[in-house]
Amino acid sequence: MRPITILIADDEPEIADLIAMHLEREGYRTIKAADGKAAVQAIQTNAVDLAILDIMMPGLDGYEATRQIRERYQLPIIFVSAKTSDLDKITGLVIGADDYMTKPFNPLELVARVKAQLRRSMQLNQPADGLHQIIEAGGLVIDPDKRSVTLYGEPITLTPKEFDILVLLASHPNKVFGAENIFQQVWGDAYYESGNTVMVHIRTLRRKLGEDKDKFIKTVWGVGYTFNG
Fold first, then answer.
1. Total domain count for the chain?
2. Span between the terminal Cα atoms of the chain, in Å
3. What are the pLDDT digits (tens) for 54-94?
4. Residue 201: phi, psi to the nearest 5?
5. Mean pLDDT: which of 98-107, 116-125, 206-215 is highest?
6. Cα(122)–Cα(197) distance, rounded to whole angstroms?
7. Which ranges of the sequence are annotated as binding DNA (predicted)?
């Protein structure tokens, strides 16, 4: 069995070395990259299970690297960045990151978050034991096993979190989920800014569903969101 491999992309060698030291103590294999371009190339040429990315890197920054990674790969991504505003965090999560930590950070907390993301990733990739429950509603087809979505036969590209939100809502039609509940179930964590994060993800998800946004995902004002199946 191959070791779990984690990519660390940061243009500050001392930070990359610190993260690598703590992860290797836990038995993980690490690969280091000094910029976004090298990070993308590392994922293309290695079996990487999780990526830890800085945002402010020379050349290709963490945001653009994430966009390129998300075009082909579904591995968990954690941003570790000196950018601390709520907008920065929401931007990172919307682009496709699964978690966001600000510098300076506690390495032990980062290791705990890595373990949590790996557990979640492994659960999502478990075989469905023969159950292939495709969700269909008014031209929208969601295949949880293949993690694919089509609308009137045309594929829709979603980030992992957008897909997980859609599956959560569509699997429970007409049930209202509060923003905090959605965040806890999709991100697997309690988070003080979950409301804004979920709201932005819902907004981008609706935009990708095009003119049918009101047909599928509805806002129950003051309560949360529901899928009109």
1. 2
2. 42
3. 999 998 999 999 999 988 888 899 999 999 888 888 888 88
4. -65, -40
5. 98-107
6. 24
7. 132-229
CA dist 217 and 138 (Å) reads: 12
Q: Which two tokens stand for residue 216?
A: 């599928």
Do residues 96 and 189 both lie within one domain? no
Distance CA 172, CA 182 (A): 12
73 to 51, 146, 174: CA distances (angstroms) = 11, 13, 32
Helix axes 179-187, 194-208, angle to 10 degrees: 80
- For tokens 């976004």, name the residue: 36
Question: What is d(CA 165, CA 109) in angstroms, rounded to the nearest whole number?
Answer: 25
Q: Which domain holds residue 161?
A: 135-227
CA 147 to CA 74: how far, in whole Å? 10
